[in-house]
Amino acid sequence: MTMTRRLLLIIALLLPGRASGPSDPFEDIPHGQEYPREPEEVDRWVSARNVTAMRSHAWYLFDQLTHQSHGGLPRWLTWYQWGDDLERREPARDLVLFKPFALTSEDRDSPHLKDTTTLYNRSAYQTIINRCLGSPEKLALYAKCPGRNIPSFKEDAVAIKVKFIDVNPSGCTEVPVWDFRKTPGATKFVEWPRKVKVGDSASCEVPLSRFYRAKFDGTVHILVGFHVATREIENWVWATFWWHDAPTQGPFAEGRPRHMAEPWNQFLMNVSYSMDEPPETDGSPHIAYNPYLEGTLFDGTKSNCMSCHRRAALLVKTVKTKEVVALEPDHRILLSYGDIRTESPGRTVVRGSESAVTSYFNQPFEEMLKLSFLWSLAADHKGERVLPKPAKESDCSCGK
Ligand code: HEC
Predict the structure, then answer these.
(1) Residue to mutate (ligand 1; options 158, 227, 274, 304; most atoms within 8 A of CB)
(2) Per-residue confidence at 386, pLDDT binned at 50, 70, 90?
(3) Which residue is closest in CA terms to ligand 1's atom 6?
């Protein structure tokens, strides 16, 4: 796969005084009663279908992540990107955005450029570096460990994925808005029935202040999608936030803390603490997606974060005498209505715990190397931004 890697220097607007000098910019979600939660407690919420508790925890995470760090940036912007040094002492001045997965040609034709990037907190990134999770050779070794799993992340590991779209700073830009019941199946942004005019000139409907935004090369990038995964439970807790022009209405607004301020109170939210629970009204497994991210995938509006991420896995093949890791080459997938379609594995929509582990066609799931739900570990960007060396090579083996 050819990697379209756009380096994008983002200068966050309206930054109050940044920390200068050799301070460590990283700021985590504070650890305490609220986080990380005990897995037993989270399991109780799931089995009791306690949606209020699940949502309230997700809002808590979002509130903490968007909280202003000591350097002025929202906390999540102080997190690590693939290739960063663990011990970096530089304040996070710039955000380098990159796309681990190439866009489809349809996306490229859309008037809005898509930009997504993944960030890790220190705990997650430490595990990635110190357990050599960026090294194809070490991954091939892990594939021989019992259960074919990579080493576990710690319970305070967190990964996020953010999605920006571009707007014209001097005019109005039509930004698609997702209305759940009215737009059930549309995929490409151009097909979404409702758009709002965004910009600061008089004819626009929504001012830029209602977005978190960054500026680069004369273009303003607005944040429309925000994914969070925390390793509080083994299957991770999944929550997603997306921009809406009426953010106080409907079930996805419920439970937002009142003190959250613009632009962070402009987001709606949904959660996936389980591949199945709580079920949809027709009894089928739980749906949770972000319209700006999975909403643009085929069948994405029927997806569930956890079921797709359960499938984050690699196939280990033997080529001559060398073991190599590769993505499962047969990308056929069985759709909910029985059709077979070809998609890359990371874009395959499956839902429910059963289908999460049964739909790799020419390789049983058990034979794949499981990547602890993190699809970014399967992405084809390793050669481009190599990870720093682990503290001890000997930590990169089974059972440690
Ligand atoms: C159809 C499959 C699929 C679904 C459904 C899906 N994701 Fe992902 N996700 C991916 C892939 C593939 C990547 C890695 C490549 C990328 O960043 O686009 C990823 C990356 C991520 C990351 C970065 C960390 C990592 O390595 O996985 C987070 C966090 C994340 N997704 C959260 C979510 C949340 C929350 C939801 C549900 C609202 C969700 N995802 C639904 C496929 C999916």
Answers:
(1) 227
(2) confident
(3) 305
Residue with tokens 């968007």: 66
Ligand 1 centroid–CA 305 distance in Å is 7
What are the structure tokens assigned to 196, written together? 């709002």
Share of the chain above pLDDT 70, in %: 76
Q: Is the CB of 241 under 6 A from ligand 1?
A: no
Q: Using CA atoms, how far apart are residues 342 and 332, in angstroms rounded to an integer?
A: 4
In the numeric block, which tokens belong to residue 356? 């999460």
- Rounded to the nearest 5 degrees, what angle is found at the Cα of 329, between the Cα atoms of 326 and 331? 130
Average pLDDT of span 119-148: 92
User: The whole model's pTM is what?
Assistant: 0.88
Is the Cβ–Cβ distance between 224 and 208 less than 8 Å? no
- pLDDT tens across 68-104, in order? 988 788 899 889 888 888 886 554 444 444 333 333 3
Identify whether the C-beta of residue 134 lies closer than 8 Å to the C-beta of residue 128: yes
Structure-token pair, residue 223:
């944040």
**Atom number, ligand 1, closest to the C-alpha of residue 348:** 1
Q: Tell me which H or E stretch contains 53.
A: helix 51-66
Lowest model confidence (mean pLDDT) among 203-217, 290-304, 330-344, 373-387: 330-344
Question: How far apart are the CA of 336 and the centre of ligand 1, in A?
Answer: 20
Q: How far is CA 354 from CA 12, 130, 157, 315, 359, in A?
A: 43, 33, 26, 20, 9
Query: Burial level of 49, CB count in 10 A (0-12/13-18/19+)?
Result: middle
Q: Are 343 and 294 in contact (CB under 8 A)?
A: no
Q: Where are the alpha helices (DSSP H) in 190-297?
A: none
Query: Shortest CA distance to 293 belongs to which of 228, 358, 339?
Result: 228
Cα 66 to Cα 27, 61, 175, 228, 293, distances in angstroms: 11, 9, 23, 12, 19
Torsion (CA) 386, 100, 373, 369 in degrees, nearest 10: -60
- Give dist(CA 289, CA 304) in Å, integer: 6
Choose which residue among 55, 161, 331, 374 to substitute to test ligand 1 binding: the one with the highest number of ligand atoms within 8 A of its C-beta: 161
